[in-house]
Design goal:
Order of helices and strands: EHEEHEHEHEHEHHEEHHE
Distance between the termini: 53 Å
CATH superfamily of the largest domain: P-loop containing nucleotide triphosphate hydrolases
Helix content: 25-40%
Structural class: alpha/beta
CATH architecture of the largest domain: 3-Layer(aba) Sandwich
Number of helices: 9
Low-confidence stretches: none
Number of domains: 2
Shape: globular
CATH topology of the largest domain: Rossmann fold
CATH class of the largest domain: Alpha Beta
Number of strands: 10
Bound molecules: guanosine-5'-triphosphate, magnesium ion
Mean pLDDT: 92
Strand content: 25-35%
Amino acid sequence: MKYKILKISIVGKTNAGKSTLINQIVGEKISIQNKKINTTQELIIGVKNIKNTQILFYDTPGSNFLKNINNQSKKLKKNLWNGIDESDLILYLVDSSLINMKFLYDQLYKIKETKKNIIICFNKTDLIENKKLLPIISKIDEDHKIESFFTISAKKNIGIDELLRKLVKFSYFSNWIYTDEEITNKDDKFILSELLRETILKYLHKEIPYNIKIITSTYKTLRNSDIKIKQKIYINEKRYKKIILGKNGNMIKKIREDSQKKIKNIFKKRIHLYLELVIK
Ligand SMILES: Nc1nc2c(ncn2[C@@H]2O[C@H](COP(=O)(O)OP(=O)(O)OP(=O)(O)O)[C@@H](O)[C@H]2O)c(=O)[nH]1
Ligand SMILES: [Mg+2]
């Protein structure tokens, strides 16, 4: 059997649902998702094999093209463009419930400079009436050279099979990059650190999750097949300590319990999670 591959970057405004879509396609949670902005910071690759074709999906940080350049947004921007550069095709994801044509057109002009094929995917169609999108689609089709349009719901798994059937058609002959068991470029320790960051994002004001670094220092399967995990939360300011610990340690307790439950659901094993707060 001849092997084929295809590399696709999933690009779109922060919160469009890029990570949700990748998780849905890969069938496992490899990229964290959240209501708050700029959840994804690193370039995460999700791998989906369909018969002889391997598709690599690049989950990129939200493409607001980051007007305020601070250190963090520089990193996000670099990871975004690396993803776009490496890909054969751009899948541009739009939150259908929040369409801003001016913003969308600015983004399309920018990514069209890459001369790559663009597919536009309207996500979150569970929140709107599909027919509202029709005039928008024909307008974009008139003004831009777009390969094709799809309407999907990443969360509710609607329209994704159809999308995949189309994507496979762009694949080309090449050896696979990942083995047929690998689903991401990130290891378990990275995913565990990200899961904790997701939980912290859920409970705490957005300033904090962006100012912490999480290292999973221990990840060990015990003899009874339980998993022991130790994670260090590095903070750069003392005042964050009080906020993360919460009154009588209630916040960190909630974070630990929630994260432990999440890990258990993913790894299907009993988890012993230990968290340590470190001020750098
Ligand atoms: N109703 C609905 N919500 C969705 C859908 N897809 C994603 N969401 C929600 O939208 C929010 C953002 O999803 P993410 O996957 O984190 O978005 P993202 O594009 O990766 O965001 P960044 O990483 O910040 O760029 C989450 O709360 C998701 O649950 C969908 O199809 N329908
Ligand atoms: Mg994301």
